[in-house]
Amino acid sequence: MSHHKLEAKDLHYSYPDDHEAVKGMSFCIHHGESVGIIGANGAGKSTLLMLLMGVLFPSQGEVCVGDVHVTKKTLPMIRQRLGMVFQDPDDQLFMSTVYDDVAFGPRNYKLDEKEVETRVLHALELVGILHLKDRAPFKLSGGEKRAAAIASVLSMHPDVLVMDEPTAALDPKSRRRVMKLLTSFKHTKIITSHDLDMIYEMCDRTIVIKNGEIAADGVTSEILVNAQLMDECGLEVPLAMQNCPVCGSAKE
Amino acid sequence: MANIMNSLYNMRLLDDLARQETIIHKLHPLMKLLTTVSFLTVVVSFGRYEISGLLPLFVYPVMVFSLAELPLKPILLRILLVSPFIIGIGILNPFFDQQIYRLGGMEISRGWLTFLSILIKSGLTVTAALLLIASTGMDRLAGALRMLKIPRIFVLQLLLTYRYISVLMEEVARTLRAYSLRAPNQKGVHRSAWGSLAGQLILRTFDRAQRIYEAMCLRGFTGEYETGGFKEIRVWDIAYWAGWMLFFVAARLYNIPMVIGSLITGVIR
Fold first, then answer.
1. More exposed terminus of chain B, fewer Cβ within 10 Å: N or C?
2. From CA A30, how far away is CA A97, in angstroms rounded?
3. How far apart are CA A86 and CA B211, in angstroms?
4. Which candidate, B218, B225, B215, places its Cα nearest to that of A78?
5. Cβ atoms of residues A120 and A155 within 8 Å
6. Residues B119, B120, B125, B129: what is their CA dihedral angle, to the nearest 10 degrees?
7. Dist CA A2 CA A135 (whole Å)
8. What is the ipTM of this complex?
9. In this predicted structure, what is the pLDDT of residue A119?
């Protein structure tokens, strides 16, 4: 399945104010992997996602999706294969009904309206909000909005799901629901988050970013328990792995 | 601040109203658009002293209001919103145009007549536009404009402006809320903070707009706004437009109140 791999080769990116946000990142994500990207605020996570999605172009290095380089020419094809869920669902839901929002992507790819309908209904059913299809997005709750935003990406049948803080600002039950939903997808997943417990549960692999560079890349269960590494990168060991806050006894 | 949040909610009310399923809502958007444009053309074609000729045209908004089951109050409130501008435009007429005009037994200046005609015309045109949006929805309206081969850049501009107004207003409401919570004894915003507040607002709105645009691009947006096509135009849609056209033309050619009046007086004699 080489056509499903996502590869970053020696990526560099500087903002117009000369701030170098990404300094030589390289990694390869294979088909079906769930990868967590973590790092302190300002470490370069969002910039990296923008580079992967082709919103920004690297000043040096390249991104390859399968065997295709991400360039202006290949963007329409790349964006059909990579679906991104934004941190704030309000940025992603701009149409007047949930249905139209989920149909926005497929319609842009000039699909037949019958096929658009099939895709939209299927995507809404997958995320469990079929009954909200005629509602206005701004009237949904936080969890429902998140589900709608995920559906709007799923309707494009992407190979890779890229998610920026998918559980941010959700109540515990909605967070659990979104996590269950994401776990049920067989797509390749790239998730950035500060919710390290969620990363610990959902991702087999974790990439830690510090000051625009990769500080560690490996198995989640080994990286997230490395207290020294976490501390150096402005992070903490997930709460579920920390000692008992009452008696201080260590996890077994 | 509460006012801003209210008007934000109210603005979206038109979108909500557009989702109803009445006889008017089910009409083809293109025919509704054409009917509205015809109505506007007829209304503005009347001369500035022809008030009685304008009166029969009130039938159109009244019919649409009742058939589309639209609430009267919120739409009338929106019409009132533009009234200060209209009054601003017409209020000087009574001073400049002081010629005497006889209306029945009364003598009034022609300026008042033109002022009244401006008020009626603006009321009718604004109502017709609002009724069109409230019974069609902006998305479908944009689709109808594209069917008329209006360049996509204009249609897109219209749609994005409509979308971004709510984005801007949300940002304003949030900023003002943050301001008022830290300035509890002030009424409004102190002038020393105006500049930075407006600057912040514009930067935030740029950021937000940028993110929305990115979200659109990531889902294959290339400049064309796809609304998913329309159902075919039915005979009933054409009949709706043709019926109103007949009425508008009749109202333009004949002074209907005068005709009815002379008929009645003829019968009495």
1. C
2. 35
3. 9
4. B218
5. yes
6. 90
7. 40
8. 0.78
9. 94
Chain A CA closest to residue B220: A108
Is the confidence at residue B9, as pLDDT, over 70? no
Minimal CA–CA distance to B126: which of B44, B45, B70?
A: B44
pLDDT in tens, B172-198: 888 888 887 887 777 778 888 888 888
A154: distance to nearest CA of chain B, Å? Answer: 11
The answer to the question of residue B198 being in a domain is no
Considering the domain boundaries, does residue B108 fall inside one?
A: yes
The Cα–Cα gap between B44 and B257 comes to 19
* Cα–Cα distance for residue pair A112/A117, rounded to 1 Å: 9
Q: Identify the DSSP state of B99.
A: -
Give the count of domains, chain B.
1
Does the beta-carbon distance from B215 to A96 stay under 8 Å? no
Rounded distance, CA A147 to CA B105, Å? 69
Interacting residues of B123 by C-beta distance below 8 A, sequence separation 6+: B79
Per-block mean pLDDT, blocks of 10 residues, chain A (252 long): 78 90 94 94 90 91 91 87 88 84 88 91 91 85 90 91 88 88 89 93 94 94 92 88 75 60
- Supply the pLDDT for residue A248: 72
| CA gap A189, A29 in Å, rounded | 9
Contact A40, A6 (CB under 8 A): no
Query: Domain residues of chain A, as ranges?
Result: 2-87+159-241
Rounded Cα distance between B256 and B269, Å, is 20
Asked if residues A167 and A193 have their Cβ atoms less than 8 Å apart, the reply is yes
Q: Could you tell me the residue range of the domain that residue B32 belongs to?
A: 19-136+234-269
Cross-chain residue pair A91–B226, CB shorter than 8 Å: no
Set of chain A residues whose Cβ sits within 8 Å of the Cβ of B135: none
Q: What is the CATH number of domain A2-87+159-241?
A: 3.40.50.300
What are the φ and ψ backbone dihedral angles of A20, each rounded to 5 degrees?
Answer: -90, 105
CB atoms within 10 A of CB B261: 12
How far from chain centre, in Å, is Cα B43?
Answer: 14
Task: Using DSSP bridges, classify how beta strands A160-164 and A188-192 pair: parallel, antiparallel or unpaired.
Answer: parallel
- CB contact under 8 Å between B220 and A113, yes or no, is no
What is d(CA A117, CA A134) in angstroms, rounded to the nearest whole number? 13
DSSP code per residue over A22-90 = EEEEEEEE-TT-EEEEEE-TTSSHHHHHHHHHTSS--SEEEEEETTEE--TTTHHHHHHHEEEE-SSHH
- Rounded to 5 degrees, φ, ψ at A207 are -115, 125
Chain length of chain A: 252
One-letter identity of residue B45: S
- Residues A107, B19: C-beta atoms closer than 8 Å: no
Residue B188, domain member (yes or no): no
Question: Which two three-digit tokens encode residue B228?
Answer: 């998913």
Question: How distant is the alpha carbon of residue A22 from its chain centre?
Answer: 18
Query: What is the C-alpha to C-alpha distance for residues A84 and A32, in angstroms, rounded to an integer?
Result: 16
Q: Which residues are registered as beta bridge partners of A190?
A: A35, A162
